Amino acid sequence: MSTPGLRPGAAALLVVAALASTITRAQDALPAPDFVAHAEEVAHRQLFRGLGVDARVITALAQGDFAGAVGSLSVGAAQGSPPFNIALIRLQHECARIVQSPTVVSPAQLDKLRTDLPEARATRIIAVLDAQNEYTRKAQASCRNSRFDLRRIEATLKQSAEQGDAVSATELARYTGDAARREAMLVAAAAKNYAPAQHALAQSRVMGVQRGLSTENVASIRILLKQAGQTLPLAKLDFANCVAVGCDGHPADAPTAAVFGIDAARDGEAAVFPAMMRMPWRQRLKPEELIAWQYFGDRLNEWGCAGEGYIGAAVNFTQMLGQLEKNVRPDVVAAGKQLADRYWTDFGERAKKEQLCD
What we know:
The chain has helices spanning 32-47, 55-62, 66-78, 82-99, 107-116, 119-144, 150-162, 166-174, 179-190, 195-210, 219-228, 233-245, 254-266, 272-278, 287-302, 310-326, 330-354.
């Protein structure tokens, strides 16, 4: 479930042991502005993963100082640093989104939150939403004062891509309207074993198959996703979902899909938890296991690991756990909660590290 009009941006660090029965009291949590600052820091760590961006830049962004962050990155970018140019491209697109983001929520939307969610969770989400709106207003003003030298950035990015830099080629491919050129750039970058390029190329080919536009290189989809999944949890999940439905022409294989899907859950991949509820490999999980993984994901979300996706995830976990627990015996629910604690002990640190929220 999602609430129309609500920006899915806000994160928190509520410390919860269970969702419905032991939701954290508001007084046990850090102030909402601190939660939002943490969420933004996590979101920007994830945005700049692998680019070597200075922690001070990420701290500035967590405080809404986009102009300062752009200024700092521009110094390195002017010296021809591909990672800094890539960071600036991503910030420019983020600023464009932020400037258009609403900062006002209607009373009807707030009433819906209070109606649909347990009181403690609704109260906390609304407080975080208010703090997120304050952050957005500050970020909007700072974005308007940011100066992006887009011509220079694009020229530098093209030069780096032409010189064989896989990271630059993959980034440039995202903004290229020419499908053939985009494919060529991704093929070249994927050939250098750059996981994001392998993932993007596989996704592009899956879309081609789904739209009936192309059946070329279908056999490569599973290979590319499996290779990318060695370092990218989202690619690991996409591999699981592909195998589950036979998206690449192979017969569906739910047992194999479940192995990779569960491993993506151990990595804390946010998209895996709703996928568990709808993909065929769900049938390979016992009811208590499915409940446990949803509690595991909820706890990660309360650590801020979903970054700006906190609000949507918090609402979705409430709904998913409500559905699951309504249809099983109380002893199964209890077993699921106990198993969730074990999962957290075994995989919590791994997931936080993978999601850059440790």
